[in-house]
Task: structure prediction
Amino acid sequence: MKKAIILVTIIGFTAALSARAGDAKENWDKLCAKCHGADGKGQTKMGQKLGVKDFTDAKVQAELKDDAATKAIKEGVKDKDDKTLMKPFVDLSGDEIKALVQYVRGLQK
Result:
């Protein structure tokens, strides 16, 4: 009986992680890919105009801190002249933001 409970718990946890990963990809495709590109390289017309970073680059990933990425998603990004470079995504839950940050981490090659 204990083995069955553990197995069901593991399967449920795995399903929840898969769902979060799926939601993160959907959110990326819907909210981020226009500028950052589907692959995270930023080689889109808007991404090049804004000078977005290449999230597949190991150096960029090393410099990017999770709390800074979370803050950028929650609050948006502005340049030194207070011009909006990225709008805040206020409709995302805390879990969705965490999943999106982890999705960005997975873009590194």
User: Anything to note?
Assistant: The first strand starts at residue 77 and ends at 78.
